[in-house]
Amino acid sequence: MKKILIAYWSGTGNTELMAKRVAQGVTDAGGEALLKNAAETTPALVKEAAALAFGCPAMGAEVLEEGEMEPLIAALGSAEAGAKALGLFGSYDWGDGQWMRDWVDRMKSLGAQVDGEGIIARLEPDDDSLTRCYELGKRLAGKAELAL
Ligand SMILES: Cc1cc2nc3c(=O)[nH]c(=O)nc-3n(C[C@H](O)[C@H](O)[C@H](O)COP(=O)(O)O)c2cc1C
Counting atoms of ligand 1 from 1, which one is nearest the CA of 55? Predict the structure, then answer.
């Protein structure tokens, strides 16, 4: 069974709800979901995973959370993320999703195969966003099998 790493940061729980739903999709599709906070995620864990999902809300001024998620992402190179299926997700409030567009571009520049445009949810994710997270988990588990 292939390991799918779901690494996230969430201050008030909105992005955490999304992460848990991605993990459920992975499990239901027969994958092994490794659900981790950004703080407990190392580049080595990212490298070992067959496919990836990263979650972080818009923070600062349209950037990733700077204490834990930004250092993790900054530590990744093509050795960890290159050619890997990767889903991005996160919650936001008053912006227009710029942080997610920037994050997608950044991960593509490492060579990751980023799934779509990332899943964004305004504040607490609604049923539609959560369903999209679940479907992402199922796709990642499927891609992980194909990558064998
Ligand atoms: C310090 C701080 C900075 C934020 N900056 C932005 C921002 O730049 N753009 C935006 O759309 N929302 C911003 N937000 C709103 C959060 O993205 C939003 O509350 C989100 O639901 C938090 O997700 P979480 O529950 O996973 O922590 C900010 C929130 C905080 C606390």
Answer: 26
pTM, rounded to two decimals? 0.97
Return the closest-CA partner of residue 39 out of 68, 17, 12: 68
Q: Domains plus CATH for the chain?
A: 3-146 (3.40.50.360)
| 112 and 81 Cβ atoms separated by less than 8 Å | yes
φ, ψ dihedrals at 141, nearest 5°? -65, -40
pLDDT tens per residue across span 104-133 = 999 999 999 999 999 999 999 999 999 999
Distance CA 100, CA 89 (A): 8
For ligand 1, is residue 19 a contact (CB within 6 Å)? no
